[in-house]
UniProtKB/TrEMBL annotation:
InterPro entries, sorted: COPS7/eIF3m, PCI_dom
Ranges of residues in domain PCI: 1-159
Domain of life the protein comes from: Eukaryota
GO CC annotations on file: COP9 signalosome
PROSITE patterns for the chain: PCI (PS50250)
Similarity comment: family membership: Belongs to the CSN7/EIF3M family. CSN7 subfamily.
Organism: Acorus calamus
Name of the protein: COP9 signalosome complex subunit 7
Pfam families named in the record: CSN7_HB_subdom, PCI
UniProt KW keywords: Signalosome
Keyword Phosphoprotein annotated: no
Organism lineage: Eukaryota, Viridiplantae, Streptophyta, Embryophyta, Tracheophyta
Protein's UniProt keywords contain Transport: no
Length: 241
C-alpha cells in the first residue's frame, strides 16, 4: 500500500471518529492522531464541525496542537510550548518529520547545519540516522546524503496541509501560470497558423513553377518537331527543235 492510500484511509477513520466524539474524547483522539507514525495530514480532521465545539474550552489547547501539526514546525512548538500540551515522544518525532517536509517544500538542498538547528540535533550521525530511519524509510522524503558537502539533496517530499495564507498564494500562482499558459498557447496557435499560411503559399509557388516548367516543356517539344515542306513538282514540256 502506497503512502497516499494509507494516508487517505487513516484520515477517513479519524474523521469518522471525530464526528461522534466531544470534549475529553476529542482531546484524546487528537493526541492519538498526532502520534500515529503513518499520519502526516490533518486538515480534514481539523474541518470536522465537532472540533470547533472545544474552541474556548479547557480542551482548546489540543485544537491548537492539531493546528500546529497541520501547519507548524518543531521551532513553532518550542516558541509556544507554554500554551500547548506537552508532547509525547511519538509526537516530537512526528513534528520533527513535518519540519523536514516544511524545509523541503522550498529548498531542494538542505544543509546539515540548518537541519541540526531546526531539529535540535547535536551531531551529524544523529541527524543522518533521523533522515534515513524516520524520513526516508517512512516514505515522506527521498534524497541523497552528501557527507562531503554536509547537505541533504531532496529528490521528493510529500506535501503538507496548506495553511489559509498558502492557499491564497497557491491560487494566485496558479492563476498567473494559467494566464502565462494561455498567452503561450495563443502564441503557438499563431505560429501554427502562420506556418500553415506559409505552407499553402509554398505549395502554390511550387505549383506555379511546375506549371511553367510544363509549359516550357511543351513549347520545346513543338520547336523540336521536323518541318516538312511540300513542293509542287510541275512537269514542264520541253519543245525540242
Amino acid at each position: 500500500m502506497d503512502i497516499e492510500q494509507k494516508q487517505a484511509e487513516l484520515i477517513e477513520q479519524y474523521v469518522k471518529r471525530a464526528e461522534t466524539l466531544t470534549g475529553p474524547s476529542l482531546a484524546g483522539l487528537i493526541v492519538e492522531a498526532t502520534s500515529h507514525p503513518s499520519l502526516f495530514a490533518f486538515a480534514e480532521i481539523l474541518s470536522v464541525p465537532n472540533l470547533s465545539k472545544i474552541e474556548g474550552t479547557q480542551y482548546s489547547r489540543y485544537l491548537d496542537m492539531l493546528r500546529l501539526f497541520a501547519h507548524g514546525t518543531w521551532s513553532d512548538y518550542k516558541s509556544n510550548a507554554d500554551s500547548l500540551p506537552a508532547l509525547v515522544h511519538d509526537q516530537i518525532r512526528k513534528l520533527k518529520q513535518l519540519s523536514v517536509l516544511t524545509l523541503a517544500e522550498t529548498n531542494k538542498e538542505l544543509s546539515y547545519d540548518q537541519l541540526m538547528q531546526e531539529l535540535d540535533v547535536s551531531n551529524v550521525r544523529e541527524l543522518e540516522d533521523f533522515l534515513i530511519n524516520e524520513c526516508m524509510y517512512s516514505g515522506i522524503v527521498r534524497g541523497k546524503l552528501d557527507q562531503l558537502r554536509r547537505c541533504f539533496e531532496v529528490q521528493f517530499a510529500a506535501g503538507r496541509d496548506l495553511s489559509p495564507g498558502q492557499l491564497s498564494n497557491m491560487i494566485e500562482t496558479l492563476t498567473s501560470w494559467l494566464s502565462t499558459s494561455d498567452s503561450l498557447l495563443h502564441s503557438i496557435q499563431e505560429k501554427i497558423k502562420w506556418a500553415d499560411i506559409m505552407s499553402e503559399a509554398d505549395k502554390k509557388h511550387r505549383k506555379d513553377i511546375e506549371d511553367k516548367v510544363e509549359e516550357v516543356k511543351k513549347h520545346m517539344k513543338k520547336l523540336s518537331r521536323p518541318v516538312w515542306t511540300t513542293y509542287d513538282v510541275r512537269r514542264s514540256t520541253l519543245n525540242l527543235e
